[in-house]
Design a protein that fits this description.
103 residues, 6 helices
Length: 103
């Protein structure tokens, strides 16, 4: 369960610093939130990667009492990894794509 939560938090952290549209919508138009997250980007990106590493460790390499892993948790983990990887590797392209899709 913690791995799923870590994956979701890492996606939100990576998306919040690269896509200020979501941040502005969540803060109801407060521009200060986007400025704060822009300054925190050098810290949020490594935090996102670290949380994803922790999620993968807990999902695949940690010894567990139950033999089966939930399929939904694995799907969310891999989708989170893809989102964070694209935001870390290509932040400008993701921002341009979001701007084109947004109108």
């Amino acid at each position: 369960m913690f791995a799923l939560l870590a994956a979701l938090v890492s996606v939100l952290a990576a998306g919040a610093c690269c896509l200020p549209v979501g941040t502005i919508a969540l803060t109801a138009g407060a521009a200060g939130g986007a400025l704060l997250l822009d300054r925190a980007q050098p810290f949020l990106m490594p935090a996102s990667v670290a949380l994803l590493c922790l999620a993968f460790y807990q999902t695949y390499w940690r010894k567990r009492s139950c033999a089966r892993r939930p399929l939904a948790g694995q799907i969310v983990l891999w989708m989170s990894a893809a989102a964070v990887a694209s935001l870390v590797l290509f932040p400008q392209w993701v921002a341009l794509l979001a701007a084109k899709l947004g109108g």
